[in-house]
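Researcher: Here's my situation. A collaborator sent me these components and asked whether they could plausibly form a single complex. I don't have experimental data yet, so a predicted model of the whole assembly would be a useful starting point for our discussion.
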Amino acid sequence: MAALTIENVKKSYGSTQVLKGINIDIEKGEFLVLIGPSGCGKSTMMNSIAGLETITEGRILIGGEDVTHANPKDRDIAMVFQSYALYPNMTVRQNISFGLEVRKMPKAEREIQVDKVAKLLQLELLLDRKPAQLSGGQRQRVAMGRAIAREPKIYLFDEPLSNLDAKLRVEMRAEIKKLHQRLGTTIVYVTHDQVEAMTLADRIAVMRDGTLQQLATPQEIYDRPVNVFVAGFMGSPPMNFITAKIESETLLSIETKGETYHLPITQGKALASYIGKEVTLGIRPEMITEPLAHKAALDYVKVLNLTPLLTEAMGADTMVLTQFGDMELKCRVNPSYLVEVNKPCEFMFDMSKAVFFDPETEELI
Amino acid sequence: MANKRPFTDMLADSMPKLVLAPSFVIMMVCIYGYILWTAALSFTKSRMLPQWDFVGFDQYTKLMANDRWAVSSQNLIIFGGMFILICLVIGITMAILLDQKIRQEGFLRTIYLYPMAISFIVTGTAWKWLLNPSMGIQQIVRDWGYTDFTFDWLVNSEMVVFCLVIAAVWQSSGFVMALFLAGLRGVDQEMIKAAQLDGASLPTVYRRIILPSLKPVFFSAFVILSHIAIKSFDLVTALTGGGPGYSSDLPANFMYAHAFTRSQMGLGAASGMMMLGGVLAILIPYLYSELRGKKQ
Amino acid sequence: MIYTQKTSPIQKLLRVALYAVLIFMAAIYLLPLVVMILNSLKDVEEIRSGNLLALPQDPSLAAWSKAWSSACTGSTCDGIAPFFFNSFKIVIPAVIISTLLGAMNGYVLAMWRFKGSELFFGLLLFGCFIPFQVVLIPMAMTLGWLGLASSASGLILVHVIYGMAFTTLFFRNYYVGLPRELISAAKIDGAGFFLIFWRIVLPLSPPIIVVTVIWQFTQVWNDFLFGVVFSGVDNLPVTVALNNLVNTSFGGKEYNVDMAAALLAALPTILVYVFAGKYFVRGLSAGAVKGA
């Protein structure tokens, strides 16, 4: 039985439709990340699951029970907000136990529960402070503690890390993941940060303009994005897109600035119907590298001359923006591969993970 | 679906509406209902008691022909115009002066502001002595040796309306200053720094950058001051009693006198409606821009 | 605040001029108060023969005591003390009720919006600005029918009704500034309408409660129009009594008593202002600048 079922959910404000029929099933213990650019409807989706907004059409089931019209309090969910939304007038202890108190849990049990949560999140020393006396990371932990204390069926996280600085964000990200592994809880997590999505999720739901674009594991989304939007949205720096023509089941050609270049194809069968037609080739920056001797003999690599325009040393590797005809390509090379700006040099295209999109529909071929 | 929900849930859902309901009823009756009621009365020949004999616009015709009404509306235009203008000028000037890192700013602010805690009755009473030629400012200056000094506006029917302006400005200008001071403190400091780095002089910064950004404050102050001006009733009662004669009457006094002491309810209602019309002429553009601003 | 660096002689001169202007203005604002205090301590003869600005030669509180307990206000000669207490009897309930009403209304309008709640707010906002002359006659009749004409309860009711628009506006504008997520979190925690108000929103409200209470206190205490129209002989508020006292002319004018009475009538609001005005101005100007 699914822990959470979202069935053909639609939501409109007046004439603007923000959710256009979303279907998602979430298994018990699953960590689902909702991601998409701002305005894609992910926060509305989250609020609809919480019951903070009513949906126009469709059903929402939690643990098999229809909660479409239930109040937030009757859904057995907990939510961690972007602003944390800690009650400023209450101490940390009161913040954590408020939900239990409202649900009429006896005082003694409440205290045990608060202590348990405080220990889990290392909040023991902060229990009698007010939120204003806490740092951002501590507030974040209290917000999680408040959610955990109730032991709900589902946790909702609404961009919980976006108000933290970069270092703390990485720490808290790991902490949330550990917590999930330890407690085995079902989590729906909204973010616009694709690194968070990749690292945390069991499955990622990519949304755009109120529609679900793709629902799959992080690796699948990364390797086999269903369309140009998902391909461009997930991955940093984003995927390179090149207009190419399929020549045969093993070869494509790229025509730019009057010159024609050829690259090998590995997914020839799937592209059979496109022979002689144009497609959009998608290739991730890490697949365009310095020439690697151990790959040189493989039939899916090809070395071309590109002109570096800009280099960005990231430490572990170096990003190089290059000129390829009238296009700009991002490449990821080993820092030891020294390139000079404006001086053409060799780059190796590894086509084994290249993806192809129909130029009309922008769908994956 | 909704009818399957328990009654307690439905009650909880309608709680906000239930809480607002009494206020809604009161508002609809005691503001809008009463306005309609007054409007209806203004079309009757009611005198001491309401009489529902409708006479069309007779009361309004009578009002227009009434010299006392003419004087009081003219007074309102002079009084209101000068009061608002002077309050704004003093308020802005003082706010800018106080915004120059003044020592003891809090103390000075308290002095400028205390008049607004005082009722117009007390304000009127106090200024009545100060403006009284035989004991107030005129006498004080004469005592200093300037025996020809004359300041007798309070007993001069041409000038008495300016006495109202003086007292009202004394009472309200500090409040306007406070509004602008708060506005000045809310101006983005980085914007000012940027302008200074661009080489703008201090007066230029105020004229070109800061004051234009205070447009909403101008607006609020203007509306609040017009409101005070139109309903000024107690100030006139305490300061001049409407005199000499009825030369310093304002519409509010006219309305009160006719509706409650001279048994001319129909005429009083008509004058009340005219006052409402005056307020609406100022308020509707304001509310319109307010609500439009909120939508964005 | 503008950042300046070097101080040339001209700038120093400007600075002196600046302070001179500010102090001069302060003197003007203080003038009426000073005149009233000085002359309330003189006797009638000294006022008549001397200068309003002269210091009292023989300061005495006789005028104050007469103003308080034995000066004539219209028909009675018990000073303004009884009216002073009348005002309190009206002000205290009126302030408490209208503040509570405003808090609940503001809470709904800011945090539990529903279809039509913005319209309600717009209609109410308009109520802040109507000239009361346009509701006086129907209100007088209504109070008559309710049997509340000339009673303290009637006057309280009127102040509550016409104060409600402002108190609602204050609370609504303040609550709009509180994070909406706070309410969402409380809803998810299982709290309902009243529990959220009581446990979350009200504990965050002291700043706006101070503003509203001061505003309402000042408004109701200083009111003259409603007092003169709706109150009876037994419950005239102090503003009406003061006006009667000043305009009563039995024999010679006792300016010293008048001034003492005026000061007494102004005292409560001045005290409130001096002790709590800081919070009031802060809150009021914030609300008004945001768009009253």
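Model: Some features of this prediction you could bring to your collaborator: The mean pLDDT of chain A is 90. Residues 240-357 of chain A form a domain with the OB fold (Dihydrolipoamide Acetyltransferase, E2P) fold (CATH 2.40.50.140).
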